Amino acid sequence: MIAIGSDHGGYKLKEEIKRYLEEKDIQYKDYGCMNEERVDYPNIAKQVAQDIQKKICEKGILICKSGLGMSIVANKYKGIRCTPCHNEYTAKYARLHNDSNILALGAEELSTNEAICILRMWLGTEYEGGRHEHRLEMIRQIEQENMK
User: Fold this and answer.
1) CA 84, CA 98: separation in Å to the nearest integer?
2) Closest to 102 measured CA to CA, from 135, 74, 144
3) Residue 88 needs a FRET pair 20 to 30 A away by CA distance; which of 55, 60, 108, 121 works?
4) CA 36, CA 25: separation in Å to the nearest integer?
5) Which residues form the catalytic set?
6) Is the preceding omega at residue 33 within 30 degrees of 0, hence cis?
7) Cβ distance 18 to 33 under 8 Å?
8) Mapping DSSP to helix (H, G, I), strand (E, B) and coil, where does residue 132 land?
9) Cα separation of 12 and 121, whole Å?
């Protein structure tokens, strides 16, 4: 199950991504927003991050105008590795090396086609493990030290 959420700036792209997920028979849970009326993105990012922490959803997609605000909020949660991706290269390595569990997209910088190509790469890339596991363990240690 994929958690998906956006603010008003990412609403249209979120709806296009939902259509793509439906075409591919990928289950998702929509955390809002449900229209283009102004909302505060931290509330949506918080819900998505918390449900990934609780293992209600395996992965997440967050969309705002730049993808940055959503990623900042999501990364405040222990165990969340939210990566803003701007192309297929960053999506591939977000998963391959960093085991990203939330993809952040910028609706104002990406066309629907570009966003779907990024999403396809992110979903299709498995975490490589190996030499990268040591670094993820370092991240977990930092979280233990700094997050209550």
Assistant:
1) 12
2) 74
3) 55
4) 26
5) 64, 97
6) yes
7) no
8) helix
9) 21
Domains of the chain as residue ranges with CATH: 2-146 (3.40.1400.10)
Cβ neighbours of residue 120 under 8 Å, at least 6 residues apart?
A: none
> Which distant-in-sequence residues (6+ apart) come within 8 Å of 4 by Cβ?
14, 17, 18, 21, 28, 29, 30, 31, 48, 60, 61, 62, 63
Distance between CA atoms of 49 and 47, rounded to whole angstroms?
Answer: 6
What single letter denotes the amino acid at residue 49?
A
Interval 56-94: pLDDT, tens: 999 999 999 999 999 999 999 999 999 999 999 999 999
Residue pLDDT, tens place only, 14-50 = 999 999 999 999 999 999 999 999 999 999 999 999 9
- In angstroms, what is the C-alpha Rg of the chain? 14
